[in-house]
Amino acid sequence: MNALNTFLFVAFPYVAVIVFVFGVAYRYRRRGFTVSSLSSQFLEGKTLFWGTIPFHIGILVVFFGHLTAFLLPRATLAWNSIPVRLIVLEVTAFTFGLSVLVGLTALMVRRVTNPRIRAVTTKMDIAIELLLLAQVVLGCWIALGFRWGASWFAADLSPYLWSLVKLAPETGAVFALPWVIKAHIVGAFAILFMVPFSRLIHFVVAPLHYIVRPYQQVIWNWDRKSIRNPNTPWSKTRPNNS
Amino acid sequence: MDIRSQISMVFHLDKCIGCHTCSIACKNIWTDRKGAEYMWWNNVETKPGTGYPGKWENQDIYKGGWEVTDDGIQLKGAGKPKSLTNIFHNPHMPVIDDYYEPFTYKYLDLIESPAGDDQPTARPISMITGEPMDIKMGPNWDDDLSGSPDYARNDPNLEKLSPAEKEAMFQLERMAFFYLPRICNHCLNPACVASCPSGAIYKRGEDGIVLINQEVCRGWRMCVTACPYKKTYYNWSTGKSEKCILCYPRLEAGEAPACMHSCVGRIRYLGVLLYDADQIESVASAPETDVVNRQLDMILDPFDPDVIASAKSNGVADSTIDAAQKSPAYKFVKEWNLALPLHPEFRTLPMLFYVPPLLPVMASVTKVDNKEQSEKMHPVGKYWPDSWLYDTSTEELFGTIDEARFPLQYMANLFSAGDTAQVGDRLKKLMAVRLHRRQVTVGDVSEKMVKSALDDTGLTPQSADDIYYLTSLAHFNDRFVIPAAHREQAIEMMEFAGDVKGSTGFGFKTGTAKRGA
Question: Structurally, what CATH architecture does the domain formed by B359-476 represent?
Fold first, then answer.
């Protein structure tokens, strides 16, 4: 049992992170063409709205909630020290968790019932959706059955995750957790593990650089001025585009 | 002044016979692939009609192009705030049914069906799902259907016409139509480039061709919304957007693009225009009816020594300047002022120009009391009132243009943001050339009349002959003046040429729908 725990909460997280980092880097550099999620809005756009919007909004809020508790455990605990704030936080988090669940269910129903969407569905898409579904069901279950996760995550799990970051795993608290929470933790690393092998990779290329980019883009195959300048020395490498 | 060169095109609509050879040439080379079956980078529409995708010109539906706001011009349906907030679901994204669901037929059933009482049939099956389907729409199903309730009467360009004008267009005896071939306009202010969150779309500096880098495209689909001409297409199988590449591999090799090369009516011209890139923003922001004239002003005279010097200092190759001087596009667009861009009010500054069609104008129906003529007619021909006759007289020089079968307003809505004067000018010139040539070849038009027609339109007998030559007699090398791409320099500068030898060149093969390893 201890060996299994050690594998799941020490070895597997490291494997998942390494696979994520190197897998994403490899796929981005060598298989750039596949780095996106295969949008199916073009084949069906109406029911997609009722799935994709609650799913994405929900998962963003839930993800950043987890991230905050991981990065800023003290601040989270301080915020939760007043019960009303804790309840507001928990209710908000649970609402968005349900939003993910509703959205994901709608997406899955759409994916299996619409023949056009079935035509662009791979086994990996189904596997990822099932993995996400299991993860969000576990998450909602934890929110209901193991109250005040906002606090005990910051108190127990944030130190565990930080110990992993510091390469000195402290697993005592994690080993003692109920299996539902354990499964949720393993699920999180499983999702990370699957990113380079699935459509999940699209979040890595979220186009935030669009905000700072000028609207129009002109690319020159070569530096138009230096190429016709007889003083430009011959070079094996391409001069910078102007 | 920032002088750049742009490969530009002119389509002479009077010569288009609507044969779709261009579309087929393009399809065979570029879009005969999974996920691209529905795409027609080049398509030919019947006007009046709804086009492809249906009613694409109606930006209240599709939200394409730019609009003027207090904050300068902004993309109508995309742009920085809108693209990012709509990234999970683009509310202005057309779906495949706006184009048509691609289909084929189960031909094998014709020969493999068991013997029975009935003839076997080849049922249509969807090329997306592979399931039998009912075909609701196909490529060019609006062909020649002027006057039809589904297509012609839903043409967005009819919006500003009076009910009387609309009815006049669709009276059976007066009905006319013309063809509008469309490819990507390779705009100077491309909305697709501006809308791309990934930065995958760009305008090539050397020749102005707008391209999508397939390796960088992440399929956010904002370009499909932003292009007001609906000339970027989403490939549902690869999850990437694709568009007309102006056959750049052919251009670089000195060959005309496939659609132009194959054009049966020889309506297409391709050549270089030099323009001042510094003016793009101010021209695109100009008042609606000024946009065309300002855009034409941006295009510079390639014979002007100042322009030549400035172009050279800006890195434009001598061969490109030479091509610009011989450019048929320059002649049609600037020298003769005969061509107009399609829907300049979208403010993308399209660089594909159209010579508006005169032909339906010529055969205007006038109300004359011509009893003698109608008595000669066969009784079947007396279906319509006797007083309606086609007026082919040239008594009134330009009367037929104002009394056109197509209201001028309709043409103006297509080519000059609703300004009838600009389209009228071009049509009068075409008419003057015709009168001149009739005088030369038939001689039944008085010299005085021709002279006044030419003077009215600012032409000379010489320029009228030049227009006639390039319109009717021009050879391949007159119609396509392709500047050298100087790939030799590009390759030398980019990489060691020895590495390139034996490599596959452009193009690659990668799995389609799969997003797994």
Answer: Orthogonal Bundle (1.10)
